[in-house]
Amino acid sequence: MYYYAVETLPINSITHKFLIRGHTQNEGDNAHSLIEKSIKRAKKSGPIYIPYQYVQLIRNTKKTGNAFVVNELNYDDFYDLKKLFEDITLNVNKDLQGNQIKLSEIKSIRFVKNSETYDLKYSYEGEWITVKSKTSTNTRKNRSDNNLNITEIRLRAAYNSKLTISDQKKQDLRTLLEKNIVPRCYSGFYESLF
């Protein structure tokens, strides 16, 4: 995804540092904490019946400063990054020295526009290890479009239609509506799921 973004968008480089789980504290953690507290507070005064109630709670979570911006997404807003990975045929096997790449041990990775290589580190202080971006032949599967230029590759939608829910789930939701466990004023949302 980073390789595609750097090559197709007005971005010169992307460096991603993978943080150590449990050893970080950042503004994202603070935001999640505020949202969790807001939802717990709201649930004390009554149930949450539809996703839009969560959206409103999140938007109104902060008491000072700028409100959180919530971008609501639809099924057609998601892209199939597995297909993108297959189309790009990014080399994730060996670095320029022929050493096996240990994906689970990478601490930092960097992609630079118009480069035939990318860099990675196995420690935060260590030296960058250079990797040839493209494989000479696609070892994952034999593809005729292996030599596509990255700018010719198009993102594909992850979903072509709304995800369906099981018949059992539909019946359970109908029962909740019929017994007025979920108030009828929310029936429009649930009917849209059937």
Helices and strands, with pairings:
Elements: H1 2-8, E1 13-17, H2 27-44, H3 51-59, H4 81-88, E2 108-112, E3 117-121, E4 129-132, H5 167-178, H6 187-193
| Overall pLDDT confidence | 89
Would you report the number of β strands? Answer: 4
Coarse structural class: alpha+beta
The termini sit apart by 34 Å
Question: Which series of helices and strands comes N to C?
Answer: HEHHHEEEHH
Roughly what fraction of the amino acids lie in strands?
5-15%
Please summarize the sheet with the most strands. 4 strands, antiparallel
- Name the quaternary structure: single chain
The low-pLDDT segments are 137-144
Helix proportion: 25-40%
Describe the 3D structure:
The protein is α+β, with helices and mostly antiparallel strands. Helices cover 31% and strands 10% of the residues. The protein has helices at residues 2-8, 27-44, 51-59, 81-88, 167-178, 187-193; strands at residues 13-17, 108-112, 117-121, 129-132. The chain has a 4-stranded antiparallel sheet. Strand 3 and strand 4 form a beta hairpin.
